Amino acid sequence: MGFWYFLILLMGIVLLITAFRKQWMPSKKWFASLTGVCMIAFSIFMFQDGSAEIMQQLLNQMNISF
What we know:
The chain has helices at 2-21, 26-47, 51-61. By secondary structure, it is an all-alpha fold. Helix 1 packs antiparallel against helix 2 (26-47). The relative contact order is 0.14. It has one domain (2-61). Keywords: Membrane, Transmembrane, Transmembrane helix. The chain crosses the membrane at residues 31-47.
């Protein structure tokens, strides 16, 4: 699973770099930056010890089972 979290981290970094280098409309740049930051934050959170249990409890509270 660590591979996928690392891939999400890299995608978030690439998205942030792309958002600041391209000459996009401000709304598109803001959305790309926000998405990149969320991807980076999620992947860093999932790399922490105990994050799987936290996610399991959160999904159980929302009645989502896999």
